[in-house]
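User: Sorry, what's this?
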Amino acid sequence: MKQRQIRHTVGRMAPLALLWILAAAGAAPGKDDLQVYLLPAPTVESETITLEQIGIVRGDETLAAQARAVSLGRFSVIGQQIVLDRPTVISRLASCGIASDQVTLRGAEKVSVRRNERNLGSDRLASVALAMLKGLNPAPSKIVLIRTPRPIALEAGHMVELNPRLTGPIQGGLARVCVEAVEKDKVIAQQDILFGVKYLRHRAVAAEDLAAGVQLTSGNVSIETGESNEPEPAGWTAPYGMLTQQRVVKGAEIEPQRLAPVEAPILVRRRQMVVVKLETGRLLISSLGEAQGDGKVGEFISVKMGSDKDSRVIKARVRPDGTLEPYHEGIQL
């Protein structure tokens, strides 16, 4: 395996470097000499860097074996690059009992070492986050990437899925998406991405000056569509039929907090004689009763049925025509 890695590395070197290695391999070094050719930009497989991984060592076999195993550093984070210069290499060899006068260094003045990793590029991360934002309901009408994300570097051999999620509610026209690299239900890396978003939403605008207490209609209100930093509230409808609580000038937006619903009239009064009707298919039964309280359309009130001696009180709902519909234990009769 080591010989195969060395042949692969040598194959990518400049012709002069290759000639030096071949000459060094055929030379007869001194008894205690060590010759090291440093590679300029090697890629290693392990977290720990050894001299064997960044250079080609020749010389006394016992001394060479000792030198090849010398540790020159360790990767602490994914995507890290470690730069080693010649003085650092000499120092590390000396700390392991190999004196500087026993070593001849050739090749690169500085070695830039990287670990064999898999990069998930900025474009791929941004496209995953963008697809998620476009799938929201409601979806933004405009999405702009504010800051390009940093790539995610993974160790070789990892098979991951990219899962995007919002890190919080969309506010002030900003959407923050976290893209997670997940392997076997475990998040092994993640990156936050910031977008600017706009939404199309409707707004009610005064078509004329409106005094307080005016009921809104299609004649005095215009509905416009424009961009906003926030999505349109679910179930938005034109505020026709609402009353203004304060004056609104022509062209100004009519905000919901400045409106009030029209007060529904009381349709049934206390002690009023009412008709209670029960309709079931082809059967229609009606009877007179006495309302025990005031009621508006849709409200439930108590109704006294029968004479004082054999009377009973039932619950009934007020209909738009002023009649009442009997209920019993919450189930329509």
